[in-house]
Amino acid sequence: GVRLLLHGLCSNTTVKSLDLKGNNLRTMGAEALGKLLRQNKSIRSLTLEWNSLGMWEEGFSFFCQGLRANNFLQRLDLRNNQINHQGAEELAMALTQNTSLQELDLRWNNIGLLGGRALLNCLHSNKTLKRLELAGNNVPGDILKAVEQALDHNQDREAILSEAQNQVNILSKEVLSLKDEKNKQFMDFVDAVDKHKEEKARSEKMSAARVSQLQEALDEQYSIMNSLKTKLQMTEAALALSEQKVHNLGELLNAMKQEQNSVAECHLRELQQQKQEGADRESRLLHDLSAASEKNLLLRNQVDELERKCKVQQDQLFQVKQDLTNTTAELKLRAVEAEERLETEKRRFKQNLEDMESLRVKEVDRMTQHIEASERSMHNRIQRLEAIRISLEEELSQVKAAALTERGQAEEELIKVRSQARLEEQQRLEHLKEKLRLMTESRDEAQNCCLKQKEMVAEAQAKAKQLSLYADGLRRRLDELQQDLDSKEEEKVTELNKVKVELQEQIGHLEAERAAQDGLREKIAALERQLKALSSNHREALLDKEGEISLLLEKLRMKEAEISRVREEEAQRASFLQNAIMAYVQGSPLGTLSSRK
Protein backbone atom coordinates (compact mmCIF):
# COMPACT_ATOMS: atom_id res chain seq x y z
CA GLY A 1 0.00 0.00 0.00
CA VAL A 2 2.83 2.40 0.82
CA ARG A 3 4.53 1.60 -2.48
CA LEU A 4 1.35 2.45 -4.44
CA LEU A 5 0.85 5.63 -2.41
CA LEU A 6 4.43 6.80 -2.90
CA HIS A 7 4.36 5.88 -6.59
CA GLY A 8 1.36 8.18 -6.98
CA LEU A 9 3.13 10.97 -5.05
CA CYS A 10 6.22 10.86 -7.31
CA SER A 11 4.53 13.07 -9.91
CA ASN A 12 2.51 15.15 -7.43
CA THR A 13 3.34 18.88 -7.21
CA THR A 14 0.95 20.13 -4.49
CA VAL A 15 1.65 18.01 -1.36
CA LYS A 16 4.09 19.87 0.95
CA SER A 17 4.06 17.66 4.07
CA LEU A 18 3.89 13.81 4.38
CA ASP A 19 3.35 11.98 7.71
CA LEU A 20 3.86 8.15 7.68
CA LYS A 21 4.30 7.69 11.43
CA GLY A 22 3.90 4.14 12.75
CA ASN A 23 3.19 2.31 9.46
CA ASN A 24 5.63 -0.62 9.84
CA LEU A 25 7.53 0.18 6.64
CA ARG A 26 9.91 -2.49 5.38
CA THR A 27 12.45 -2.84 2.56
CA MET A 28 9.93 -2.18 -0.23
CA GLY A 29 8.64 0.89 1.59
CA ALA A 30 12.18 2.25 2.14
CA GLU A 31 12.99 1.76 -1.56
CA ALA A 32 9.74 3.50 -2.53
CA LEU A 33 10.68 6.37 -0.18
CA GLY A 34 14.09 6.66 -1.90
CA LYS A 35 12.43 6.78 -5.32
CA LEU A 36 9.98 9.42 -4.03
CA LEU A 37 12.85 11.60 -2.75
CA ARG A 38 14.64 11.33 -6.10
CA GLN A 39 11.60 12.30 -8.20
CA ASN A 40 9.35 14.52 -6.07
CA LYS A 41 10.14 18.26 -5.94
CA SER A 42 7.32 19.63 -3.76
CA ILE A 43 7.51 17.79 -0.39
CA ARG A 44 9.23 19.93 2.27
CA SER A 45 8.46 17.90 5.45
CA LEU A 46 8.61 14.08 5.89
CA THR A 47 7.71 12.30 9.17
CA LEU A 48 8.78 8.58 9.47
CA GLU A 49 8.59 8.00 13.25
CA TRP A 50 8.09 4.43 14.61
CA ASN A 51 8.84 2.53 11.38
CA SER A 52 12.05 0.56 12.20
CA LEU A 53 13.73 1.53 8.92
CA GLY A 54 17.19 0.89 10.38
CA MET A 55 16.54 -2.86 10.57
CA TRP A 56 16.50 -3.16 6.75
CA GLU A 57 20.03 -2.17 5.68
CA GLU A 58 19.49 -2.42 1.91
CA GLY A 59 16.24 -0.48 1.99
CA PHE A 60 17.70 2.17 4.31
CA SER A 61 20.77 2.58 2.02
CA PHE A 62 18.37 3.03 -0.92
CA PHE A 63 16.49 5.63 1.14
CA CYS A 64 19.78 7.46 1.90
CA GLN A 65 20.65 7.48 -1.81
CA GLY A 66 17.31 9.15 -2.54
CA LEU A 67 17.98 11.69 0.24
CA ARG A 68 21.40 12.40 -1.30
CA ALA A 69 19.81 13.20 -4.68
CA ASN A 70 16.98 15.33 -3.19
CA ASN A 71 17.44 19.11 -3.02
CA PHE A 72 13.95 20.17 -1.86
CA LEU A 73 13.24 18.40 1.48
CA GLN A 74 13.76 20.69 4.51
CA ARG A 75 12.56 18.64 7.53
CA LEU A 76 13.01 14.89 8.19
CA ASP A 77 11.79 13.00 11.31
CA LEU A 78 13.43 9.55 11.89
CA ARG A 79 12.68 8.99 15.59
CA ASN A 80 12.46 5.42 16.93
CA ASN A 81 13.61 3.71 13.73
CA GLN A 82 16.34 1.44 15.26
CA ILE A 83 19.09 3.10 13.22
CA ASN A 84 22.54 1.77 14.18
CA HIS A 85 25.99 3.24 13.53
CA GLN A 86 26.08 1.80 9.95
CA GLY A 87 22.78 3.48 9.09
CA ALA A 88 24.10 6.70 10.65
CA GLU A 89 27.19 6.46 8.41
CA GLU A 90 24.94 5.99 5.34
CA LEU A 91 22.86 8.97 6.47
CA ALA A 92 26.03 11.05 6.99
CA MET A 93 27.24 10.23 3.46
CA ALA A 94 23.86 11.37 2.13
CA LEU A 95 24.03 14.59 4.14
CA THR A 96 27.45 15.49 2.72
CA GLN A 97 25.83 16.02 -0.71
CA ASN A 98 22.39 17.25 0.36
CA THR A 99 22.01 21.04 0.18
CA SER A 100 18.39 21.60 1.28
CA LEU A 101 17.73 19.70 4.56
CA GLN A 102 17.59 22.07 7.57
CA GLU A 103 16.10 19.92 10.40
CA LEU A 104 16.83 16.24 11.17
CA ASP A 105 15.38 14.39 14.20
CA LEU A 106 17.23 11.13 15.13
CA ARG A 107 16.14 10.74 18.74
CA TRP A 108 15.71 7.33 20.38
CA ASN A 109 17.78 5.27 17.94
CA ASN A 110 20.99 3.28 18.44
CA ILE A 111 23.59 5.47 16.68
CA GLY A 112 26.34 5.26 19.30
CA LEU A 113 29.85 6.71 19.26
CA LEU A 114 30.76 5.75 15.66
CA GLY A 115 27.50 7.08 14.23
CA GLY A 116 27.88 10.33 16.18
CA ARG A 117 31.42 10.78 14.83
CA ALA A 118 30.20 10.13 11.27
CA LEU A 119 27.45 12.73 11.66
CA LEU A 120 29.93 15.19 13.17
CA ASN A 121 32.32 14.67 10.23
CA CYS A 122 29.53 15.20 7.70
CA LEU A 123 28.71 18.56 9.29
CA HIS A 124 32.11 19.87 8.12
CA SER A 125 30.92 19.65 4.51
CA ASN A 126 27.18 20.23 5.04
CA LYS A 127 26.50 23.94 5.56
CA THR A 128 22.67 23.96 5.44
CA LEU A 129 21.66 21.72 8.39
CA LYS A 130 20.59 23.95 11.32
CA ARG A 131 18.93 21.50 13.77
CA LEU A 132 19.99 17.91 14.61
CA GLU A 133 18.41 16.03 17.52
CA LEU A 134 20.53 13.09 18.88
CA ALA A 135 19.03 12.48 22.32
CA GLY A 136 18.67 8.86 23.42
CA ASN A 137 21.35 7.46 21.05
CA ASN A 138 24.22 6.68 23.48
CA VAL A 139 26.29 9.44 21.88
CA PRO A 140 29.00 10.92 24.17
CA GLY A 141 28.49 14.43 25.46
CA ASP A 142 31.60 15.84 23.80
CA ILE A 143 30.33 14.74 20.39
CA LEU A 144 26.92 16.25 21.17
CA LYS A 145 28.64 19.51 22.10
CA ALA A 146 30.73 19.43 18.92
CA VAL A 147 27.57 18.79 16.88
CA GLU A 148 25.83 21.72 18.59
CA GLN A 149 28.83 23.94 17.85
CA ALA A 150 28.85 22.85 14.20
CA LEU A 151 25.12 23.55 13.95
CA ASP A 152 25.66 26.95 15.59
CA HIS A 153 28.40 27.58 13.05
CA ASN A 154 25.98 26.65 10.24
CA GLN A 155 23.36 28.98 11.69
CA ASP A 156 25.92 31.77 12.00
CA ARG A 157 27.07 31.11 8.46
CA GLU A 158 23.46 31.13 7.24
CA ALA A 159 22.84 34.41 9.05
CA ILE A 160 26.03 35.91 7.60
CA LEU A 161 25.11 34.64 4.14
CA SER A 162 21.59 36.05 4.49
CA GLU A 163 23.03 39.38 5.62
CA ALA A 164 25.49 39.31 2.72
CA GLN A 165 22.67 38.40 0.34
CA ASN A 166 20.60 41.25 1.75
CA GLN A 167 23.53 43.60 1.30
CA VAL A 168 24.04 42.30 -2.23
CA ASN A 169 20.32 42.78 -2.91
CA ILE A 170 20.47 46.27 -1.45
CA LEU A 171 23.54 47.05 -3.52
CA SER A 172 21.91 45.59 -6.62
CA LYS A 173 18.79 47.68 -5.92
CA GLU A 174 20.97 50.74 -5.47
CA VAL A 175 22.83 49.91 -8.70
CA LEU A 176 19.48 49.48 -10.46
CA SER A 177 18.24 52.76 -8.98
CA LEU A 178 21.47 54.41 -10.11
CA LYS A 179 20.99 52.92 -13.55
CA ASP A 180 17.38 54.15 -13.57
CA GLU A 181 18.55 57.60 -12.53
CA LYS A 182 21.23 57.54 -15.21
CA ASN A 183 18.65 56.41 -17.74
CA LYS A 184 16.32 59.19 -16.58
CA GLN A 185 19.17 61.68 -16.85
CA PHE A 186 20.01 60.33 -20.28
CA MET A 187 16.35 60.56 -21.30
CA ASP A 188 16.22 64.09 -19.91
CA PHE A 189 19.35 64.87 -21.89
CA VAL A 190 17.76 63.32 -24.99
CA ASP A 191 14.63 65.40 -24.34
CA ALA A 192 16.82 68.48 -24.00
CA VAL A 193 18.52 67.54 -27.27
CA ASP A 194 15.09 67.11 -28.86
CA LYS A 195 14.04 70.48 -27.50
CA HIS A 196 17.23 71.93 -28.86
CA LYS A 197 16.45 70.33 -32.20
CA GLU A 198 12.94 71.77 -32.06
CA GLU A 199 14.38 75.17 -31.23
CA LYS A 200 16.84 74.72 -34.05
CA ALA A 201 13.98 73.83 -36.40
CA ARG A 202 12.09 76.86 -35.08
CA SER A 203 15.14 79.05 -35.68
CA GLU A 204 15.48 77.48 -39.12
CA LYS A 205 11.86 78.36 -39.77
CA MET A 206 12.51 81.87 -38.53
CA SER A 207 15.60 82.12 -40.72
CA ALA A 208 13.55 80.76 -43.63
CA ALA A 209 10.91 83.37 -42.87
CA ARG A 210 13.61 86.03 -42.77
CA VAL A 211 15.03 84.70 -46.04
CA SER A 212 11.55 84.82 -47.52
CA GLN A 213 11.18 88.38 -46.26
CA LEU A 214 14.53 89.27 -47.78
CA GLN A 215 13.45 87.52 -50.96
CA GLU A 216 10.23 89.56 -50.96
CA ALA A 217 12.29 92.71 -50.41
CA LEU A 218 14.50 91.67 -53.30
CA ASP A 219 11.41 91.03 -55.41
CA GLU A 220 10.13 94.48 -54.49
CA GLN A 221 13.49 95.95 -55.44
CA TYR A 222 13.36 93.97 -58.69
CA SER A 223 9.84 95.31 -59.30
CA ILE A 224 11.10 98.84 -58.58
CA MET A 225 13.96 98.21 -60.98
CA ASN A 226 11.50 96.95 -63.58
CA SER A 227 9.35 100.05 -63.07
CA LEU A 228 12.46 102.20 -63.43
CA LYS A 229 13.39 100.26 -66.52
CA THR A 230 9.94 100.91 -67.94
CA LYS A 231 10.30 104.57 -67.02
CA LEU A 232 13.72 104.54 -68.70
CA GLN A 233 12.20 102.94 -71.75
CA MET A 234 9.47 105.56 -71.74
CA THR A 235 12.06 108.34 -71.36
CA GLU A 236 14.08 106.75 -74.15
CA ALA A 237 10.95 106.61 -76.29
CA ALA A 238 10.25 110.28 -75.46
CA LEU A 239 13.91 111.03 -76.20
CA ALA A 240 13.55 109.19 -79.51
CA LEU A 241 10.42 111.20 -80.25
CA SER A 242 12.23 114.43 -79.37
CA GLU A 243 15.18 113.40 -81.51
CA GLN A 244 12.74 112.60 -84.30
CA LYS A 245 11.21 116.04 -83.82
CA VAL A 246 14.68 117.63 -83.85
CA HIS A 247 15.49 115.64 -86.96
CA ASN A 248 12.26 116.82 -88.54
CA LEU A 249 13.01 120.41 -87.50
CA GLY A 250 16.50 120.06 -88.97
CA GLU A 251 15.03 118.78 -92.15
CA LEU A 252 12.59 121.71 -92.13
CA LEU A 253 15.51 124.04 -91.43
CA ASN A 254 17.48 122.54 -94.29
CA ALA A 255 14.44 122.79 -96.46
CA MET A 256 14.04 126.41 -95.36
CA LYS A 257 17.71 127.02 -96.00
CA GLN A 258 17.39 125.42 -99.42
CA GLU A 259 14.26 127.46 -100.03
CA GLN A 260 16.09 130.56 -98.81
CA ASN A 261 18.98 129.77 -101.09
CA SER A 262 16.60 129.13 -103.89
CA VAL A 263 14.69 132.32 -103.08
CA ALA A 264 17.97 134.22 -102.84
CA GLU A 265 19.02 132.79 -106.15
CA CYS A 266 15.64 133.64 -107.55
CA HIS A 267 15.92 137.14 -106.17
CA LEU A 268 19.41 137.41 -107.51
CA ARG A 269 18.22 136.18 -110.80
CA GLU A 270 15.26 138.51 -110.56
CA LEU A 271 17.61 141.29 -109.49
CA GLN A 272 19.90 140.46 -112.33
CA GLN A 273 16.88 140.26 -114.63
CA GLN A 274 15.20 143.29 -113.11
CA LYS A 275 18.33 145.50 -112.86
CA GLN A 276 17.34 146.76 -116.02
CA GLU A 277 13.75 147.39 -114.99
CA GLY A 278 13.44 150.56 -113.05
CA ALA A 279 13.72 151.93 -109.65
CA ASP A 280 10.03 151.27 -108.91
CA ARG A 281 10.63 147.58 -108.72
CA GLU A 282 13.75 148.07 -106.53
CA SER A 283 11.66 149.34 -103.62
CA ARG A 284 9.38 146.35 -103.91
CA LEU A 285 12.29 144.02 -103.89
CA LEU A 286 13.76 145.72 -100.86
CA HIS A 287 10.44 145.39 -99.16
CA ASP A 288 10.30 141.69 -100.05
CA LEU A 289 13.90 141.33 -98.84
CA SER A 290 13.06 142.89 -95.50
CA ALA A 291 10.09 140.58 -95.18
CA ALA A 292 12.25 137.61 -96.02
CA SER A 293 14.85 138.73 -93.49
CA GLU A 294 12.15 138.99 -90.85
CA LYS A 295 10.95 135.51 -91.67
CA ASN A 296 14.53 134.31 -91.50
CA LEU A 297 14.91 135.89 -88.03
CA LEU A 298 11.72 134.26 -86.89
CA LEU A 299 12.90 130.93 -88.21
CA ARG A 300 16.26 131.40 -86.52
CA ASN A 301 14.53 132.23 -83.25
CA GLN A 302 12.41 129.11 -83.59
CA VAL A 303 15.53 127.06 -84.32
CA ASP A 304 17.27 128.53 -81.24
CA GLU A 305 14.26 127.72 -79.07
CA LEU A 306 14.16 124.17 -80.44
CA GLU A 307 17.89 123.82 -79.75
CA ARG A 308 17.39 125.06 -76.18
CA LYS A 309 14.51 122.60 -75.68
CA CYS A 310 16.69 119.81 -77.11
CA LYS A 311 19.52 120.73 -74.73
CA VAL A 312 17.10 120.80 -71.77
CA GLN A 313 15.70 117.41 -72.79
CA GLN A 314 19.26 116.08 -73.22
CA ASP A 315 20.14 117.40 -69.75
CA GLN A 316 17.00 115.80 -68.32
CA LEU A 317 17.82 112.55 -70.14
CA PHE A 318 21.39 112.63 -68.76
CA GLN A 319 20.03 113.30 -65.24
CA VAL A 320 17.56 110.42 -65.60
CA LYS A 321 20.34 108.12 -66.84
CA GLN A 322 22.57 109.18 -63.92
CA ASP A 323 19.70 108.61 -61.48
CA LEU A 324 19.06 105.24 -63.07
CA THR A 325 22.73 104.25 -62.76
CA ASN A 326 22.78 105.40 -59.12
CA THR A 327 19.61 103.48 -58.30
CA THR A 328 20.91 100.36 -60.07
CA ALA A 329 24.22 100.65 -58.21
CA GLU A 330 22.41 101.10 -54.90
CA LEU A 331 20.16 98.17 -55.65
CA LYS A 332 23.15 96.04 -56.59
CA LEU A 333 24.96 97.09 -53.40
CA ARG A 334 21.86 96.32 -51.33
CA ALA A 335 21.47 92.95 -53.06
CA VAL A 336 25.15 92.16 -52.46
CA GLU A 337 24.87 93.24 -48.82
CA ALA A 338 21.71 91.17 -48.38
CA GLU A 339 23.42 88.14 -49.95
CA GLU A 340 26.49 88.66 -47.76
CA ARG A 341 24.29 88.97 -44.67
CA LEU A 342 22.42 85.86 -45.69
CA GLU A 343 25.67 83.96 -46.21
CA THR A 344 27.08 85.16 -42.89
CA GLU A 345 23.82 84.20 -41.13
CA LYS A 346 23.93 80.78 -42.77
CA ARG A 347 27.60 80.27 -41.86
CA ARG A 348 27.02 81.45 -38.29
CA PHE A 349 23.96 79.24 -37.92
CA LYS A 350 25.84 76.22 -39.34
CA GLN A 351 28.77 76.94 -37.00
CA ASN A 352 26.42 77.17 -34.03
CA LEU A 353 24.75 73.92 -35.03
CA GLU A 354 28.11 72.16 -35.39
CA ASP A 355 29.32 73.54 -32.05
CA MET A 356 26.15 72.46 -30.27
CA GLU A 357 26.28 69.02 -31.87
CA SER A 358 29.95 68.55 -30.91
CA LEU A 359 29.20 69.72 -27.36
CA ARG A 360 26.28 67.32 -27.12
CA VAL A 361 28.37 64.39 -28.43
CA LYS A 362 31.21 65.22 -26.04
CA GLU A 363 28.84 65.53 -23.10
CA VAL A 364 27.13 62.21 -23.97
CA ASP A 365 30.52 60.47 -24.31
CA ARG A 366 31.74 61.94 -21.05
CA MET A 367 28.57 60.94 -19.22
CA THR A 368 28.66 57.39 -20.62
CA GLN A 369 32.36 57.02 -19.75
CA HIS A 370 31.76 58.35 -16.24
CA ILE A 371 28.79 56.02 -15.73
CA GLU A 372 30.78 53.01 -16.99
CA ALA A 373 33.75 53.92 -14.79
CA SER A 374 31.52 54.32 -11.70
CA GLU A 375 29.78 50.98 -12.41
CA ARG A 376 33.13 49.21 -12.90
CA SER A 377 34.50 50.70 -9.68
CA MET A 378 31.34 49.66 -7.77
CA HIS A 379 31.51 46.09 -9.16
CA ASN A 380 35.22 45.84 -8.35
CA ARG A 381 34.64 47.14 -4.85
CA ILE A 382 31.78 44.68 -4.27
CA GLN A 383 33.90 41.79 -5.57
CA ARG A 384 36.83 42.76 -3.35
CA LEU A 385 34.61 43.04 -0.28
CA GLU A 386 32.97 39.67 -1.12
CA ALA A 387 36.42 38.05 -1.49
CA ILE A 388 37.54 39.55 1.85
CA ARG A 389 34.34 38.40 3.56
CA ILE A 390 34.64 34.87 2.13
CA SER A 391 38.29 34.59 3.12
CA LEU A 392 37.49 35.80 6.66
CA GLU A 393 34.61 33.32 6.95
CA GLU A 394 36.85 30.49 5.72
CA GLU A 395 39.57 31.41 8.19
CA LEU A 396 37.05 31.65 11.05
CA SER A 397 35.49 28.31 10.08
CA GLN A 398 38.92 26.67 9.87
CA VAL A 399 39.92 28.10 13.24
CA LYS A 400 36.62 27.02 14.82
CA ALA A 401 36.84 23.53 13.32
CA ALA A 402 40.44 23.13 14.46
CA ALA A 403 39.53 24.40 17.92
CA LEU A 404 36.52 22.06 18.08
CA THR A 405 38.50 19.00 16.99
CA GLU A 406 41.34 19.78 19.36
CA ARG A 407 38.93 20.51 22.16
CA GLY A 408 37.08 17.23 21.53
CA GLN A 409 40.31 15.24 21.54
CA ALA A 410 41.52 17.00 24.66
CA GLU A 411 38.21 16.39 26.44
CA GLU A 412 38.27 12.66 25.53
CA GLU A 413 41.77 12.26 26.87
CA LEU A 414 40.90 14.33 29.94
CA ILE A 415 37.84 12.11 30.60
CA LYS A 416 40.01 9.00 30.45
CA VAL A 417 42.64 10.49 32.73
CA ARG A 418 39.97 11.95 35.03
CA SER A 419 38.49 8.44 35.55
CA GLN A 420 41.92 7.10 36.53
CA ALA A 421 43.51 9.91 38.55
CA ARG A 422 40.80 12.52 39.27
CA LEU A 423 41.99 13.38 42.79
CA GLU A 424 45.64 13.86 41.79
CA GLU A 425 45.12 15.87 38.58
CA GLN A 426 42.18 18.11 39.59
CA GLN A 427 44.28 21.25 39.99
CA ARG A 428 45.98 20.74 36.63
CA LEU A 429 42.60 20.19 34.96
CA GLU A 430 41.32 23.43 36.49
CA HIS A 431 44.43 25.15 35.13
CA LEU A 432 43.68 23.68 31.70
CA LYS A 433 40.07 24.89 31.91
CA GLU A 434 41.32 28.36 32.77
CA LYS A 435 43.63 28.30 29.75
CA LEU A 436 40.79 27.10 27.53
CA ARG A 437 38.60 29.91 28.84
CA LEU A 438 41.36 32.38 28.02
CA MET A 439 41.61 30.89 24.55
CA THR A 440 37.86 31.22 24.02
CA GLU A 441 38.03 34.80 25.32
CA SER A 442 40.87 35.56 22.92
CA ARG A 443 38.86 33.94 20.13
CA ASP A 444 35.81 36.05 21.07
CA GLU A 445 38.01 39.15 21.14
CA ALA A 446 39.32 38.27 17.69
CA GLN A 447 35.74 37.78 16.45
CA ASN A 448 34.75 41.13 17.97
CA CYS A 449 37.73 42.74 16.24
CA CYS A 450 36.61 41.15 12.97
CA LEU A 451 33.08 42.46 13.50
CA LYS A 452 34.44 45.93 14.26
CA GLN A 453 36.54 45.80 11.10
CA LYS A 454 33.48 44.74 9.11
CA GLU A 455 31.48 47.64 10.62
CA MET A 456 34.28 50.04 9.69
CA VAL A 457 34.30 48.65 6.15
CA ALA A 458 30.50 49.06 6.02
CA GLU A 459 30.84 52.65 7.23
CA ALA A 460 33.47 53.29 4.57
CA GLN A 461 31.12 51.81 1.98
CA ALA A 462 28.30 54.04 3.24
CA LYS A 463 30.58 57.07 2.97
CA ALA A 464 31.57 56.02 -0.53
CA LYS A 465 27.86 55.69 -1.41
CA GLN A 466 27.17 59.13 0.02
CA LEU A 467 30.03 60.54 -2.03
CA SER A 468 28.72 58.82 -5.15
CA LEU A 469 25.24 60.24 -4.46
CA TYR A 470 26.76 63.68 -4.00
CA ALA A 471 28.64 63.26 -7.29
CA ASP A 472 25.34 62.24 -8.95
CA GLY A 473 23.72 65.36 -7.53
CA LEU A 474 26.54 67.43 -8.96
CA ARG A 475 26.04 65.71 -12.31
CA ARG A 476 22.32 66.48 -12.20
CA ARG A 477 23.19 70.07 -11.40
CA LEU A 478 25.53 70.09 -14.41
CA ASP A 479 22.66 68.79 -16.54
CA GLU A 480 20.38 71.55 -15.22
CA LEU A 481 23.03 74.12 -16.03
CA GLN A 482 23.33 72.65 -19.51
CA GLN A 483 19.56 72.96 -20.00
CA ASP A 484 19.72 76.56 -18.80
CA LEU A 485 22.47 77.20 -21.31
CA ASP A 486 20.34 75.67 -24.06
CA SER A 487 17.35 77.82 -23.07
CA LYS A 488 19.42 81.02 -23.04
CA GLU A 489 20.89 81.12 -26.50
CA GLU A 490 20.66 84.89 -26.84
CA GLU A 491 23.13 85.49 -23.97
CA LYS A 492 25.59 82.79 -24.97
CA VAL A 493 28.91 84.49 -24.43
CA THR A 494 28.34 85.80 -20.88
CA GLU A 495 26.45 82.71 -19.71
CA LEU A 496 29.10 80.38 -21.18
CA ASN A 497 31.84 82.22 -19.28
CA LYS A 498 29.88 82.02 -16.02
CA VAL A 499 29.09 78.34 -16.52
CA LYS A 500 32.74 77.62 -17.37
CA VAL A 501 33.81 79.24 -14.10
CA GLU A 502 31.18 77.26 -12.16
CA LEU A 503 32.18 74.05 -13.93
CA GLN A 504 35.83 74.62 -13.07
CA GLU A 505 34.88 75.16 -9.42
CA GLN A 506 32.74 72.02 -9.40
CA ILE A 507 35.51 70.06 -11.11
CA GLY A 508 37.83 71.27 -8.32
CA HIS A 509 35.26 70.08 -5.74
CA LEU A 510 34.96 66.77 -7.55
CA GLU A 511 38.73 66.37 -7.62
CA ALA A 512 38.82 67.14 -3.89
CA GLU A 513 36.10 64.53 -3.32
CA ARG A 514 38.02 62.08 -5.47
CA ALA A 515 41.08 62.75 -3.31
CA ALA A 516 38.88 62.13 -0.25
CA GLN A 517 37.69 58.86 -1.81
CA ASP A 518 41.33 57.89 -2.42
CA GLY A 519 42.02 58.65 1.24
CA LEU A 520 39.09 56.44 2.25
CA ARG A 521 40.40 53.67 0.02
CA GLU A 522 43.82 53.99 1.66
CA LYS A 523 42.11 53.81 5.08
CA ILE A 524 40.25 50.68 3.95
CA ALA A 525 43.54 49.16 2.78
CA ALA A 526 45.12 50.07 6.15
CA LEU A 527 42.17 48.46 7.96
CA GLU A 528 42.56 45.35 5.81
CA ARG A 529 46.26 45.23 6.69
CA GLN A 530 45.39 45.60 10.39
CA LEU A 531 42.85 42.80 10.00
CA LYS A 532 45.49 40.59 8.39
CA ALA A 533 47.92 41.44 11.22
CA LEU A 534 45.26 40.58 13.83
CA SER A 535 44.51 37.30 12.06
CA SER A 536 48.23 36.46 11.95
CA ASN A 537 48.57 37.32 15.67
CA HIS A 538 45.52 35.17 16.40
CA ARG A 539 47.05 32.29 14.45
CA GLU A 540 50.31 32.66 16.35
CA ALA A 541 48.39 32.66 19.65
CA LEU A 542 46.53 29.53 18.54
CA LEU A 543 49.83 27.88 17.61
CA ASP A 544 51.23 28.78 21.07
CA LYS A 545 48.11 27.37 22.73
CA GLU A 546 48.42 24.19 20.65
CA GLY A 547 52.04 23.87 21.79
CA GLU A 548 50.97 24.25 25.41
CA ILE A 549 48.21 21.68 24.93
CA SER A 550 50.69 19.23 23.36
CA LEU A 551 53.06 19.73 26.37
CA LEU A 552 50.20 19.09 28.77
CA LEU A 553 49.20 15.98 26.82
CA GLU A 554 52.75 14.67 27.06
CA LYS A 555 52.68 15.27 30.82
CA LEU A 556 49.37 13.41 31.03
CA ARG A 557 50.84 10.49 29.11
CA MET A 558 53.79 10.42 31.52
CA LYS A 559 51.38 10.41 34.47
CA GLU A 560 49.39 7.59 32.88
CA ALA A 561 52.62 5.61 32.42
CA GLU A 562 53.50 6.20 36.10
CA ILE A 563 49.99 5.18 37.20
CA SER A 564 50.15 2.00 35.08
CA ARG A 565 53.59 1.19 36.53
CA VAL A 566 52.26 1.76 40.08
CA ARG A 567 49.28 -0.50 39.29
CA GLU A 568 51.58 -3.23 37.98
CA GLU A 569 53.69 -2.99 41.11
CA GLU A 570 50.58 -3.13 43.28
CA ALA A 571 49.34 -6.12 41.32
CA GLN A 572 52.70 -7.86 41.74
CA ARG A 573 52.62 -7.11 45.47
CA ALA A 574 49.07 -8.37 45.72
CA SER A 575 50.06 -11.59 43.87
CA PHE A 576 53.07 -12.01 46.16
CA LEU A 577 50.88 -11.54 49.25
CA GLN A 578 48.28 -13.91 47.89
CA ASN A 579 50.93 -16.57 47.22
CA ALA A 580 52.41 -16.04 50.66
CA ILE A 581 48.99 -16.32 52.31
CA MET A 582 48.20 -19.46 50.32
CA ALA A 583 51.57 -20.95 51.28
CA TYR A 584 51.01 -20.03 54.91
CA VAL A 585 47.54 -21.47 54.88
CA GLN A 586 48.73 -24.66 53.29
CA GLY A 587 51.60 -25.00 55.77
CA SER A 588 49.45 -24.40 58.89
CA PRO A 589 47.56 -27.19 60.82
CA LEU A 590 44.30 -25.82 59.55
CA GLY A 591 45.53 -26.44 56.05
CA THR A 592 46.40 -30.05 56.86
CA LEU A 593 43.03 -30.68 58.44
CA SER A 594 41.27 -29.18 55.47
CA SER A 595 43.34 -31.30 53.15
CA ARG A 596 42.44 -34.42 55.09
CA LYS A 597 38.79 -33.59 54.97
UniProtKB/TrEMBL annotation:
<dbReference type="GO" id="GO:0005886">
    <property type="term" value="C:plasma membrane"/>
</dbReference>
<keyword id="KW-0963">Cytoplasm</keyword>
<feature type="coiled-coil region">
    <location>
        <begin position="225"/>
        <end position="569"/>
    </location>
</feature>
<dbReference type="InterPro" id="IPR001611">
    <property type="entry name" value="Leu-rich_rpt"/>
</dbReference>
<dbReference type="InterPro" id="IPR052116">
    <property type="entry name" value="Centro_Cilium_Assembly"/>
</dbReference>
<dbReference type="GO" id="GO:0005813">
    <property type="term" value="C:centrosome"/>
</dbReference>
<dbReference type="Pfam" id="PF13516">
    <property type="entry name" value="LRR_6"/>
</dbReference>
<dbReference type="InterPro" id="IPR032675">
    <property type="entry name" value="LRR_dom_sf"/>
</dbReference>
<keyword id="KW-0206">Cytoskeleton</keyword>
<keyword id="KW-0175">Coiled coil</keyword>
<protein>
    <submittedName>
        <fullName>LRC45 protein</fullName>
    </submittedName>
</protein>
<feature type="coiled-coil region">
    <location>
        <begin position="154"/>
        <end position="181"/>
    </location>
</feature>
